[in-house]
Amino acid sequence: MKFTPLKIPDVILIEPNVHGDGRGFFFESYHEKVFAEHGINDRFVQDNHSSSVKGVLRGLHYQIAPKAQAKLIRVIRGSIFDVAVDIRKDSKTFGQHVTMTLTAEKREMLYIPAGFAHGFCVLENGTEVFYKVSDFYSPADERGILWNDPKLAIPWPPLKIDYLLSERDRKHPPFLEAVHV
């Protein structure tokens, strides 16, 4: 596997070694020892899987301590525009974001450590996202940030259709009013 730190170095793009032939393909999407060798020591305890139509925008979500979550994001069908926002108050990159288009075709994964809000916009109908998290879902510790806060200036992709958001995601507070970790 190839591990590449992004503009915010704690967010890492992971490219697996894919072995393919006439029968199909095989790759390891997670290997605890290999991840640890690259500084990713989170213990993943829950897998989540979503399916969405084009234009669905999920986020920006996070959980606060003691239930903060690191995430390992992978697209298994279709494609997404993925966003991680640094909400760590003492970080040099506080308030900055990193974006990445993830596709099932490329099979790349994105590691997002605890202390980041996460969201994505679905670019194709029938897109499926599979991700691991390092702590269990906790409604009491769940928080969010308004997806289109001008302070963050996230360059969400134009899709020629309206974004589809949950009522909850429409009502998240702006970045400066959100709980930071």
From TrEMBL:
Function: Catalyzes the epimerization of the C3' and C5'positions of dTDP-6-deoxy-D-xylo-4-hexulose, forming dTDP-6-deoxy-L-lyxo-4-hexulose.
NCBIfam families for the chain: rmlC
One Pfam family hit: dTDP_sugar_isom
EC number: 5.1.3.13
Site keyed Participates in a stacking interaction with the thymidine ring of dTDP-4-oxo-6-deoxyglucose: positions: 137
Protein name: dTDP-4-dehydrorhamnose 3,5-epimerase
Family classification: Belongs to the dTDP-4-dehydrorhamnose 3,5-epimerase family.
GO BP term (any one): polysaccharide biosynthetic process
Molecular function via GO: dTDP-4-dehydrorhamnose 3,5-epimerase activity
Cellular-component GO terms for this entry: cytosol
Protein's UniProt keywords contain Transcription: no
Alphabetic keyword roster: Isomerase
Keyword Cytoplasm: no
Complex and partners: Homodimer.
Matching CDD domains: cupin_RmlC
